[in-house]
Amino acid sequence: MISETIRKVPAMQPTSQERLALPSSLGRMVWILGILLLGCIAFSVCIGALSISLKELWEIVASQLGIIQKTNVEEQKSIVFWVIRLPRVCLAVLIGAALGIAGASLQGLFRNPIADATLIGVTSGASLFAIFVLMLNVKYFSMLNELAGVYSISFVAFVGAALTTLLVYQLSKIAGDGGVTTLLLCGIAINAFVGAITGLMTYLADDQQLRSITFWNLGSLGGATWTSVLAVAPFVAISVLFMPYLSKALNLLVLGESQAASLGVNLKSLKQKVIILATMGVGASVAVAGTIGFVGLIVPHIIRTTFGPNHKTLIIGSALSGAIVLTLADTISRTIVAPSELPIGILTSLLGTPFFIYILWEQKRKRL
């Protein structure tokens, strides 16, 4: 009945101007954020204890690509750029995009502006399994050590994120009808349970283990290498490429689950796809960089306020903006207390909390 009623209302059919408005605004947004991202990348790779000028940056890249045959840039700067800074910036871009796009899609799925990957157990599951490995010491996992080597913790953390998310999803089907509300409640319950186990293991840890656990939970991109970049890239790429295709269904879900279902949205399939894609990106990110908060929570709000609520614009914009935010945050974290390094999770929380409060205040002011 609802679908028949809607089909009878001419106003619900988009005009030609409305159909052209979205591609135009989307293209404009991609150009703006793309240029900002390139600027942030150039700024980040040039700033540090060993400064690199833009001219030197061009010569380093051009000589590697064969555009120029000779360069006067010091070899040390070239090594710092290719081995240390560029992989770190690439990792920041990938993780920022994954966190941003997961936050935007999950907020649309739950129809909740404060939803992020934490609600479905990705972060808590990864933390629990990483702490488990840190406490038992990877040397006891001989087969795992042979397969993953120094990336054993990252591998186990990703498995933990996937298993915890799967548990939340299966429990939502057992405990209720598998709806979004039930999924949200199960996520909160499992997060509380996993958090309690994590707290217990932290309590039992010795000083050295406690230091490792604390540092891992604070998040850092300091261990970035080309190997970690290549390990994360496929998961983030799948999430970034396929999530925008779910934007139409997420737009309809704003009307409510029953209305969206009457308009042809397969809610079960939509939930599965959003959760799988979000878990892949965020799980891989948390596995290599630890817990980095507020990026997936705040970035969608910025895009929604600036470019509108359409989920296609929101998802693509959140991926680009997440990359920008995390690239800048990482640049600040490694330079603000140089030669030491401030964990990036601390910085994103310090900057993100007041900004998020400001966003909530602005939304309330507009409603008055």
Give a concise summary.
Its main location: membrane. The protein has 368 residues and is mainly alpha-helical.
Termini gap: 35 Å
Count of discrete structural domains: 1
Helical coverage, percent range: over 70%
Class computed from helices, strands and strand pairing: mainly alpha
Query: What shape does the CA trace take?
Result: globular
CATH architecture classification: Orthogonal Bundle
The overall pLDDT, averaged over residues, is 83
Our Rg estimate from Cα atoms comes to 22 Å
Which regions are unreliable across 5 or more consecutive residues at pLDDT < 50? 1-21
CATH class: Mainly Alpha
- CATH fold-type name: ABC transporter involved in vitamin B12 uptake, BtuC
CATH superfamily: ABC transporter involved in vitamin B12 uptake, BtuC
GO molecular function: transmembrane transporter activity
Membrane topology: Multi-pass membrane protein
InterPro entries: ABC_BtuC-like, ABC_transptr_permease_BtuC
Subcellular location: Cell membrane
Write the layout of secondary structure elements.
Elements: H1 2-8, H2 16-46, H3 54-65, H4 75-110, H5 122-136, H6 142-148, H7 152-175, H8 180-204, H9 207-218, H10 226-242, H11 247-253, H12 257-262, H13 267-289, H14 295-307, H15 311-335, H16 344-367
Helix pairs in contact: 2-4, 2-15, 4-10, 4-13, 4-14, 4-15, 5-7, 5-8, 5-9, 5-13, 7-8, 7-13, 10-13, 14-15, 14-16
What does this structure look like?
This protein is mostly helical. 77% of the residues lie in helices and 0% in strands. It is built from 16 helices and no strands. Helix 7 runs antiparallel to helix 13. The chain is globular. It starts with a helix and ends with a helix.
